[in-house]
């Protein structure tokens, strides 16, 4: 009898130790961490009442439609980091109306599309830094009225984000754009808009936007020719970097 009980306990222990999804101890909320998974079916061990799910160091190249619908009644935090995520299908986050934080850092995502963000109207934090993002569909911002933090740092966004779309983020408090090759001419109006609305704007532009405005105002052709604008700003930066000449006595 004792041997049978020992066998049952041992089997339970082994199953628990081998499980790649574990409950996070010490967290008041129903929180689970999955590491090293290669299929979303491995989330089946997580109760439907989970409030927080973190997936780390895994191989999840795509998220199909309704990937997390089973948790729609309680899930408010979803983190998929360092998991080789590349493709997010339409409605991948369907019915996650309670989700407040979505973190997709260090993956291979190439775009943020309206069809997978549209059900996240209560989202407050969206972090997608260190991906391969080149495109954010303009309509995305209209579906994120409660967003407070947007982090798109270290991606490949090389086009201006339409100001009229940014204006739809009424509750935005912090915006990270460091490491994106934004065109020079779109920087001043974005900086002005965000500063005017008291948004903390994290970038690596220094005070370049002031030089850009100077060039746009006074350098002939800068308003319509990017090469002229870039050359003008570079010339100003070169002059600023030269140490002042001290007259000889």
UniProtKB/TrEMBL annotation:
<dbReference type="GO" id="GO:0031012">
    <property type="term" value="C:extracellular matrix"/>
</dbReference>
<keyword id="KW-0645">Protease</keyword>
<keyword id="KW-0433">Leucine-rich repeat</keyword>
<keyword id="KW-0378">Hydrolase</keyword>
<feature type="signal peptide">
    <location>
        <begin position="1"/>
        <end position="19"/>
    </location>
</feature>
<keyword id="KW-0121">Carboxypeptidase</keyword>
<dbReference type="GO" id="GO:0005615">
    <property type="term" value="C:extracellular space"/>
</dbReference>
<protein>
    <submittedName>
        <fullName>Carboxypeptidase N subunit 2</fullName>
    </submittedName>
</protein>
<dbReference type="InterPro" id="IPR003591">
    <property type="entry name" value="Leu-rich_rpt_typical-subtyp"/>
</dbReference>
<keyword id="KW-0732">Signal</keyword>
<dbReference type="InterPro" id="IPR001611">
    <property type="entry name" value="Leu-rich_rpt"/>
</dbReference>
<keyword id="KW-0677">Repeat</keyword>
<dbReference type="InterPro" id="IPR032675">
    <property type="entry name" value="LRR_dom_sf"/>
</dbReference>
<dbReference type="Pfam" id="PF13855">
    <property type="entry name" value="LRR_8"/>
</dbReference>
<dbReference type="InterPro" id="IPR050328">
    <property type="entry name" value="Dev_Immune_Receptor"/>
</dbReference>
């Amino acid at each position: 009898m004792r041997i049978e009980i020992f066998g049952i306990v041992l089997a339970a222990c082994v199953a628990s130790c081998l499980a790649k999804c574990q409950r996070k101890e010490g967290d008041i909320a129903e929180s689970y961490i999955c590491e090293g998974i290669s299929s979303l079916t491995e989330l089946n061990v997580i109760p439907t009442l989970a409030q927080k799910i973190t997936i780390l160091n895994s191989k999840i190249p795509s998220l199909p439609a309704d990937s997390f619908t089973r948790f729609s009644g309680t899930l408010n935090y979803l983190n998929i980091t360092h998991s080789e995520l590349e493709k997010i299908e339409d409605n991948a986050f369907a019915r996650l109306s309670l989700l407040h934080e979505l973190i997709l850092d260090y993956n291979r995502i190439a775009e943020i599309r309206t069809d997978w963000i549209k059900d996240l109207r209560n989202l407050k934090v969206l972090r997608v830094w260190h991906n391969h993002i080149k495109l954010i569909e303009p309509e995305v911002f209209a579906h994120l009225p409660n967003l407070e933090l947007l982090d798109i740092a270290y991606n490949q966004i090389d086009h201006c984000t339409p100001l009229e779309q940014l204006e739809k983020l009424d509750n935005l408090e912090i915006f990270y754009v460091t490491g994106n090759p934004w065109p020079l001419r779109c920087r001043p109006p974005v900086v002005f808009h965000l500063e005017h609305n008291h948004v903390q704007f994290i970038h690596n532009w220094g005070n370049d936007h002031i030089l850009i405005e100077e060039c746009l105002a006074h350098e002939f052709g800068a308003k319509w020719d990017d090469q002229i604008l870039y050359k003008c700003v570079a010339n100003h930066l070169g002059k600023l970097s030269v140490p002042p000449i001290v007259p000889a006595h």
